[in-house]
Amino acid sequence: MKQNTSTEEAIKRWDGFADTYAKSHHEQGDLHKEVFLNPTLATLMGNVTNKRVLDAGCGEGYLSRIIARSNATVTAVDYSSRMLEIAKERTPEDILIDYRHGNCEDLNILEDKSFDLVVSNMVIQDLANYEKAFQEMYRLLVDGGVFIFSILHPCFITPESGWERTENGEKLHWNVDKYFYEGVYEQSGLGDKEKMLLFHRTLTSYINTLIKTGFVLESIVEPKPSKEMLEKYPSFEEDFRCADFIVFKLKK
Ligand SMILES: C[S@@+](CC[C@H](N)C(=O)[O-])C[C@H]1O[C@@H](n2cnc3c(N)ncnc32)[C@H](O)[C@@H]1O
């Protein structure tokens, strides 16, 4: 079936999914963010005090609030009005965040070179035109500015991947297929009213596009659970078998 990937349709899907999505998020995000992404992002971001930070695709805003609490000046953009409404409701009065309605693929509402740091947590695989989004992040950063983004690991989470199980449901190994497919696919198990769409690209496409945009790659992290997180959530032991996420740190 042909998928509608227009921006209008994508916004409608996110608006329809926003309340369900936000229910799974508390002040540390969801469980995967707490275990894998937040510790990695914190290490890669370092000290954000007095930095001008853009949270591109902020969703219900938990990461914007964490960063703003560290004394950064935070602008947070999302194209889902419902997500922004929830983000504003969840932001206490003493935390100043400039929430803006905008599309990460065209952020002409924001000036060139107006941020020291752009963070985009689990957004780039959700948007159709990642080349344009990378160009926008580059444009918005000051010279020497940093762009950090996390995505589902494209080598392991593909349009056809998942556990091979025994008849009793025991996990044998993780299967990966259709790695070289580039384009849209439906994410299983997400979305209630709407089917949510994701975009798959190879690791080569991501890295070559970032280089072509002008970014210099500083580091890549494939997050694993820490000892403390494993003590808290022992079921994440299986995440030592392959990586669900990859996080990039780039410099302009
Ligand atoms: C998976 S959620 C992640 C939200 C948030 N960064 C977090 O970590 O909780 C993806 C978010 O990106 C937003 N989004 C997707 N594509 C976008 C685009 N092109 N421009 C702006 N927001 C976008 C969606 O509306 C949604 O809120």
Annotate the secondary structure layout.
Layout (H helix, E strand, L loop, with lengths): L6 H17 L7 H15 L6 E5 L5 H8 L3 E6 L2 H9 L7 E5 L13 E7 L8 H11 E12 L7 E6 L5 E7 L5 E4 L10 E4 L2 H11 L2 E6 L5 H6 L12 E7 L1
Parallel strand pairs: 1-2, 1-4, 2-3, 4-5
Antiparallel strand pairs: 5-11, 6-7, 8-9, 10-11
Bound molecules: S-adenosylmethionine.
Q: What is Rg?
A: 18 Å
Name of the level-1 CATH class: Alpha Beta
SS elements, strand count? 11
Bound molecules: S-adenosylmethionine
Just name the CATH architecture.
3-Layer(aba) Sandwich
Q: Helix- and strand-based class?
A: alpha/beta
Number of domains: 1
H-E order: HHEHEHEEHEEEEEHEHE
| Largest beta-sheet characterization | 7 strands, mixed
Number of helices: 7
Low-confidence stretches: none
Mass-distribution shape: globular
CATH homologous superfamily grouping: Vaccinia Virus protein VP39
* CATH fold node name: Rossmann fold
Strand content: 25-35%
What's the end-to-end separation, in Å? 40 Å
Structure characterization notes:
- Helices cover 31% and strands 27% of the residues.
- It is globular.
- It has helices spanning 7-23, 31-45, 62-69, 81-89, 130-140, 203-213, 227-232, and strands at 52-56, 73-78, 97-101, 115-121, 141-152, 160-165, 171-177, 183-186, 197-200, 216-221, 245-251.
- It has one domain (7-153, 204-251): 3-Layer(aba) Sandwich (Rossmann fold), CATH 3.40.50.150.
- The chain is an alpha/beta fold and 252 residues long.
- β4, α5 and β5 (141-152) form a beta-alpha-beta unit.
- The protein has a seven-stranded mixed sheet with strand order 3-2-1-4-5-11-10, with helices on both faces. A two-stranded antiparallel ribbon has the order 6-7. A two-stranded antiparallel sheet has the order 8-9.
- The longest helix has 17 residues, at 7-23.
- Bound molecules: S-adenosylmethionine (SAM).
- Residues 14, 29, 57-59, 62-63, 77-80, 83, 103-105, 121-123, 126-127 line the site of S-adenosylmethionine.
- S-adenosylmethionine (SAM) binds at residues 14, 29, 57-59, 62-63, 77-80, 83, 103-105, 121-123, 126-127.
- GO terms for molecular function: S-adenosylmethionine-dependent methyltransferase activity.
- One of its GO terms (biological process) is methylation.
- Residues 54-149 form the Methyltransferase type domain.
